[in-house]
Structure formats: structure tokens, C-alpha cells
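Q: Could you fold this chain for me?
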Amino acid sequence: MSEIELSAGVIDYTDTGGGGGKGVVVLVHGLGFDESVWDAVVEELRGDFRVVVPVLPLGSHRRPMRPDADLSAHGIAAILAEFLERLDLRDVTLVQNDAGTAQLLVGVRDERVGRLVLTSCEALDNYPPGIQGRTLHAASRVPGGLFLLLQSFRVPFLVRMRSSLGGMAKRPIPYALVRRWYRPLLTQRAIRRDLAAFCRSTEKDTYLKAAERLGEFDRPALVAWGAQDLMMPPATGRRLAELLPRGRYVEIPEAGTLVQLDNPGVLCAELRRFIGEGEGRSIGESAS
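A: Sure. Below is the predicted structure, expressed as C-alpha cells.
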């Protein structure tokens, strides 16, 4: 992996480089995931695009941030914006999953974003999202609560429950991936500190306020939602698409929140079509 030092600390990232000259795609993960959650998408797109995946400080990062770093949702968005600037990435297709980070750039620091893709993610009034999000945020506010909650990820049966990671995907998630994602949180106190800082400092109305600026985004936007998403209801995705002036909505069949794991083939087909068209179809049209 490559690394880059930003204001908040050192960030790891993967970069396929080159590509087929069709532009740059930046893939953004959510809480408790790292770059590997996008592996199937990277492999599918790398022949035609330069694909870049930063590891943001959302729990599966291996390097703790500076103690004084702003790790609220807005702080994470600022880290992402600085990352794009430092790598001098332009006219980026920015693809977000699970967390709502990318929305916070709109109308603030979105000048490097040529196209916006929001796949099943925190938005509008769905924050914290689902039972998983509410449990995490409640645990982060109790001394020792986050550490105790994380112990459940040592037990495969508990991970598969619908109230845990099992509720975020239609297909079973390989436990080897779960071990990879949660090893930093289980072994490094400073990583738990970073995640707790995010949970404690992100306000409940963060994405409702962000939605007020979505109408300013005059570039193509795609909202690609998991059709069987229990944590991020498809109705939320439809509302998001309606707020974006050039937005279109598609549903990814046989997929939950983690659309890139459940159905990477359809997601990549939609991304290719979207980038190739440059403009969206009508809102409400779904993938078949």
C-alpha cells in the first residue's frame, strides 16, 4: 500500500495507477471497513479506470490519527477532501458506501468531484442507521462500552446475526474479512479512541443539514441502493436522488448495505454506464 501524511495523520491507500484513460474512480468505505471491502470492484474497474481507495480513520485503519484530529463526520470529510487535493485528483467519480462522508463535501469542498455516486449509506434522518448504528453510538458513550461491544466480533455466530454485520449483507461475509477489518479495533486502544471520537462528535442531524446543500450539486449523480437493504432503507435512497438536480436512482438486486460485496457485477455495470453517459436517466429507473 501507499501512504500519505495529511493534517490529521498518515493515511494508507491503494492506487491502481494508469487505467484505460477513462478517468479516476475514488472508492470510499464506511465504519469498520478498510480498502478490502472494495476488492471485487477494484478488480473489475482497474482495466479502464485509475481506481484509488483511501483507508479513512473509521475503525479499520492501521495507523492512529493525531490525538487532536477532528474525527467527526465533517472532520472525516475534510480528510477526504485533503486526500484528493494532495494526490491532485481531478474530475473524480467519487463513490461512497455505508458512511455519509461524501455528502458533506457538496457545496463545501467538492471542486474535484466530477460525478457523485452514493451507494447505500447514512443520509437524511437515518443516522445513526439501523440497530447496528444505534448500538454502536450508545456503546461509545459508556466507559468501556465500545471495548465490550467489539468483543462480539471475535465470535463468528454473533457476527452473522442480523443485528450485527450479518444484517448489512445479503450474502454471508467471510469471517476472514471480519477478522481483518476488526483486528485494529481489537488490538489498538488508539484506534478505538479514533472510532469513539467519530461516534461522540457526529451530530444526529448531520446529514439532514447536508441535504440542504445537495441541490447545489450540478454535476451527474447516481444513487445506487441495495434492494434488500435493511439498515439503509431504499426509500432513503429515492429521497436522496430527488434532491440531486442531475441524480438518478437505481436499485442493486440481491444486495444489502454492502452492495460491493453482495453484487459487485451489477454495481460495476451501473458505474460504467453512469460514467459513460455523463448524465443520469430519470429518477426511479432500477437496475434489472
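A (continued): Confidence is low (pLDDT under 50) at residues 279-288.
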